[in-house]
Please model this.
Amino acid sequence: MAVDRDTTRRVAHLARIRVEEDQLDALAGELSRILAFAEQLGELDVEGVEPMTSVTPMRLKRRADVVTDGNRRDDVLANAPETRDGFFVVPKVVE
Model:
C-alpha cells in the first residue's frame, strides 16, 4: 500500500505531529514501508501457534479473590477531620 502526501499530512494532523512540507515525501515513504512490512506479516502461516503475552513464559503471582474491609477502619478514619460511629462526617450539600 502506497501512502501519498495528502494521506501523510492527514495522519500527521490526526497524530498532532508537525511535519514540514519538505519532509512529507520522506515520511510518506517510511509509512509505505511500514505498511508493506505489516502486509508481509499477514501472509505468515500461524496456524497452531499460541498467542504470547511475553517472550519469556511466566505466570503472575495470584492471591485469593476474597472481599474484605481491609480491617483498617481506625487507620483510615484517623485522617478524617470529623467522624461519628465509625463513619466520615461531611457537610450537607443538598437541601
Notes: The chain has a mean pLDDT of 89.
